[in-house]
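Sequence and structure are no longer studied apart. As an example, we show below a sequence and the tokens encoding its fold:
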Amino acid sequence: MAVTRDELKTRIGQALGETKADLVIKNTRFLNVVTGETAAGDIALCGDRIVGTYESYDGVEEIDGSGLTVVPGFIDTHVHCESTCVTPMEFDRCVLPRGTTTAICDPHEICNVLGEKGLRYFLDCAEGTAMDLRVQLSSCVPATELETSGARLEAADLLRYKDHPKVLGLAEFMNFPGVFHKVDGVLDKLAAFDGRHIDGHAPLLSGRELNAYLSCGIRNCHETTSAPEAMEKLRKGMQVLIRDGSVSKDVHALAPVIQPETSPFLGFCTDDRNPLDIAEEGHMDHLIRSAIRLGAPLAHVYRAATWSAARGFGLFDRGLIAPGQRADLVLLDDLEDCVVNRVIRNGRVVTPQTFAGRPAVSPVGLRSVKLHPVTAEDFAVPARGSVQSVIGVLPGKIITAHLRLEVPAKDGKLVADPDRDILKICVFARHGTNQNVGRGFASGFHLREGALASSVGHDSHNICVVGASDEDMAIAVNRLIELQGGFVAVRNGQVVGELALPLAGLMSLEPFETVERHLRSLRASVKGMGCPLAEPFLQLAFLPLPVIPHLKITDRGLVDVDKFALVEA
């Protein structure tokens, strides 16, 4: 809402010290992310704005900031709330007390299942969250034509929401092959949002292809995984968003890139991070302390997480402790370790009561798994040659290897070989439009027995299952159908762990604390099956994503992402 003349008069009076400020943080120190200095002095707030720094103030309400250091609120520049396995309202309650005062989300997970209905659900949630949740309009629904999604959003569909107050622009443009092939529908979306913010998604793009991608007005990338890749993108004017999620962990590789010259063009994001990891490590606070521990300059880490992030998205009212800026502040017990003491959002201290008055938003997509029960025979792979393309799972990465391995056969069918870490992997279309089944093999899960199944399968979210036995794989898929989505672990014919995600097959209806407990139990069950991966279900969830190199699988079969084509054999 626009500020009124009377509100400006009030701000001016409080800034001049003619009247008491609404809230003053006294006797504190604060980090100036412009100069890099840690300054002493009061911070005066009038409503949701900072009105005084570097001076002494009295407040109607005062906080003793002795021993604390104040920094601007953290900004998560790219997140899929669905991938936290909780609703946007629970995401809000989970991460705001950890200092994340602004998050920029792309709801393309739920949009690939429910289309506009899912988008409207997120916009309704964003209007009620205590944090400032901004929504980018999902650009790739479906992500490619090599998979079956539950919906389709064209440029005309997205334009209806272009001027929504919570919308910044177009979400990550994953279909970079469509850009290079000049596909009409792809270019229509880019043209429709020309001049508005357009998020990028450009893993390993370089040279002329990167130039072509950037020439379409795309501004950033969160898929950067090495320092040389980051530097090329920065040289070409692309903002690099340093990611550390539950699977993709890039802070270690990219911390050396954080320097005085580059920090204005960086940001941090979580992309996909679940409540268990948030409980054990943190959210944006974890990324900040990780980068500092890896030797990145402290002030420039905080600059990237606040001011640089805000400027990159055109949010000029936040990211700095200065008069006129939004009063989104984090009070820290320890600046170097980013230990959060309390959080101020919109000029008010965040407490449990902060979340009590938010509007309720009804869940959607509670019957989204439209798949009939399966049998072990549905997993059969005819033997057409022993040497096969096999997905090589790389721990902590969503990039995979394209392996060529000898797969054993029995009775004319290719079978899993757990002794050699070759498991069967299948993707079942679950949106009711067809009965596709993609079949293949994967290495890297190290399951000696059993199966893991998930209805979270980026980005079309069909059911993905990996296992050592067809029988256990069938049991896992059928249990997912009963749950209407989630994660299931099966061993020797018995379900040994599960998490129900009935909202669009992506999110729980439970509080984030409950989801954390279930994830902890599920992780222990899978570890007992011999799987060494830190996040096996999220690692599995990225195997159907055919826009990330090098070999993936969808309901249509194995996909050679480098060729952007189905694998014939």
User: Anything to note?
Assistant: The longest strand covers residues 49-55. The chain has a mean pLDDT of 96.
